[in-house]
Design brief:
Blueprint: E1 2-3, H1 13-20, E2 24-29, E3 32-44, E4 71-76, E5 80-86, E6 95-105, H2 107-114, H3 126-133, E7 149-153, E8 161-164, E9 178-181
Antiparallel strand pairs: 1-7, 2-3, 2-7, 3-6, 3-9, 4-5, 5-6, 8-9
Helix pairs in contact: 2-3
The structure holds a DNA duplex (12 and 12 nucleotides).
Length: 190
DNA sequence: CTATTGATTGAT
DNA sequence: TCAATCAATAGG
């Protein structure tokens, strides 16, 4: 198992979203290490009305337009953060939203941070996994794998992918840009 | 300046 | 079904 190279993200956003399924997201903190397997993602494209980047670059969404592999963490609904990774070359505003993880390691830490003992509730939503891994907004606009937050790709990553409409957006067509591992119990909605 | 919305979650 | 809770955005 090895860390994903940054040029992994210099590719079609939908392809990156699918390729991330089955990879491991790792965050190291002073309290310990937490690891989750990526089981659900969504792609956000530059011409997509649901994407923050659709109206051009702003102070908030500029990480989406930065180098491939740049972390984009945004604050929403007054209380939640969501975690994305920028894709394609610098100047193009596209990203993959990590929507759900299967908890692998650091379960006790996750339970404490999420204030629940229900394993299925730890990481089955974009704001939940940010809480469970304690992903800091300080990492916004910095490259993945260069700080405490890393993604590893397993040596033989054979999984079955289901494609579906995206969740929780009102603008824009319900494009088939949501991807998750078939039959996995930890996706945000069945 | 004020009003509305939102890539959400958790409680009722 | 709805409240929490605030940054971004649209409108005046």
């Amino acid at each position: 198992m090895k860390p994903l190279p940054l040029n992994f993200f210099n590719n079609s956003t939908a392809e990156v979203a699918k390729a991330l399924l089955g990879c491991y997201l790792v965050n190291e903190t002073p309290q310990g290490e937490a690891i989750g397997k990526i089981v659900e993602t969504e792609a956000y494209l530059s011409d997509d009305p649901a994407s923050h980047s659709s109206k051009g670059i702003t102070e908030r969404n500029k990480p989406m337009f930065s180098h491939p592999g740049t972390i984009y963490i945004y604050f929403t609904y007054g209380m939640y953060h969501c975690f994305n990774i920028a894709t394609r070359e610098k100047g193009i505003g596209e990203a993959v939203l990590i929507r759900a993880l299967e908890p692998i390691k650091g379960l006790e830490l996750m339970k404490k941070r999420r204030k629940t003992d229900n394993i299925k509730e730890l990481c089955n939503g974009p704001a939940k996994l940010v809480q469970a891994l304690d992903i800091s907004k300080k990492l916004n606009n910095s490259p993945i794998n260069s700080s405490s937050l890393k993604i590893f790709q397993p040596d033989n990553n054979k999984i079955k992918i289901t494609t579906a409409k995206r969740i929780g957006i009102s603008k824009g067509a319900e494009l088939p840009l949501r991807f998750f591992i078939k039959d996995n119990k930890f996706v945000s909605k069945p």
